[in-house]
Automatic annotation (TrEMBL):
This is Ca3427-like PBP 2 domain-containing protein. It comes from Candida metapsilosis. InterPro entries: Ca3427-like_PBP2. Keywords: Signal. CDD domains: PBP2_Ca3427_like (cd13637). GO terms for cellular component: periplasmic space. Belongs to the bacterial solute-binding protein SsuA/TauA family. The lineage of its organism: Eukaryota, Fungi, Dikarya, Ascomycota, Saccharomycotina.
């Protein structure tokens, strides 16, 4: 089992290092940028190249696999599922957000034939960002809650805009990736709410993740080569979370100004979110993050290998001890 050591202080000034960090441009990213604004990365001799990934967690995993980024902050279920399926190119380091994620189930505003999630058992073509993403995995969880094994049809839409267009039966424009019409999709509630308010889409249901919602993961290559830099990044994020918790009004202003949310929605979201304020200081909660998530994924049919195989993969690629 690998271990990321704590940075060792030295009297020699260390040259600035660069980490490539992929993130989803939603309100959850706010502490990452507070850490940058307050100079916490720089104090740890770090420069962060942030890579914006609106497509979701499936795309984050692809970037890690291809060594295009060193670290990624994404949805717990996507990373646990991919590791459990045998991806040995990524390592889950720690929880970033402890509170569960509220997924809204949405369809087109004029889709009168769909008024609730039970209707999806009849229509049931689900829009997803990509195979392996959180929006894909949560479709299995939703199907399980509705009483059947899985949805059988998916429309891969790449990003949130295409998902909204897909349920509204819009044709892709010249700048959009190709996608098919879908009946519903799932996305984080507060990110979706603006489009409920505008009438572009309508909500037909909601579902919480039965696990803490966001994690920090690294490529195996970065874990091997950039251990001290990763530790310093984690320390800086901790400071960014502390700043967020102590400056909620500033967080609301930042989110409303930079991340396409209303101030009202941003403030309501801050009442629901709980960041992990001990990233790297306390061992990852194995039962909540790994056991619980894996059990739900197995029940939902996402994981189909034997328990021994799955557990071995997770044991090797999910970080157990303090960072």
């Amino acid at each position: 089992m690998f271990r990321i050591p704590r940075a060792i202080s030295t009297t020699t000034t260390r040259a600035m290092s660069t980490l490539r960090v992929a993130y989803i441009p939603e309100h959850f990213s706010t502490p990452l940028f507070f850490a940058q604004q307050q100079g916490y990365y720089a104090k740890h001799n770090l420069t962060i190249d942030f890579v914006k990934v609106p497509e979701g967690s499936g795309r984050l995993i692809n970037l890690l696999n291809n060594d295009e980024v060193d670290l990624a902050i994404g949805l717990t279920e996507a990373f646990v599922a991919d590791i459990a399926k045998g991806n040995d190119k990524i390592n889950l380091l720690d929880t970033y957000v402890q509170s569960p994620l509220l997924w809204a189930v949405s369809t087109g505003s004029k889709r009168d034939e769909i008024s609730n999630v039970q209707d999806l058992a009849k229509f049931g073509k689900i829009g997803i960002s990509r195979i392996g993403s959180g929006s894909y995995i949560m479709s299995f969880v939703l199907a399980h809650q509705l009483g059947f094994d899985k949805f059988n049809e998916f429309a891969i839409c790449s990003n949130f805009k295409n998902l909204r267009d897909s349920v509204n039966k819009k044709q892709p424009d010249g700048d959009s990736a190709s996608y098919e019409v879908s009946d519903a999709f799932m996305w984080e509630y507060f990110t979706s709410k603006k489009y409920y308010d505008s009438g572009e889409i309508k909500q037909v249901g909601e579902i919480y993740t039965p696990w803490p919602s966001w994690v920090i993961s690294a490529s195996s290559k970065a874990v091997a080569a950039k251990q001290e830099d990763i530790h310093n990044f984690i320390s800086s994020v901790n400071q960014g979370i502390e700043y967020f918790n102590q400056h909620i009004d500033e967080a609301v202003d930042y989110i409303a100004s930079n991340l396409d949310y209303s101030a009202e929605d941003a403030r309501e979201w801050t009442k629901t979110v709980q960041f992990n304020d001990k990233v790297g200081k306390v061992a990852l909660d194995w039962d909540k993050i790994v056991v619980n998530t894996t059990n739900v994924l197995k029940d939902a049919g996402v994981l189909q290998d034997g328990d021994d195989v799955i557990n071995k993969r997770l044991d090797e690629h999910v970080y157990k001890t303090n960072i």
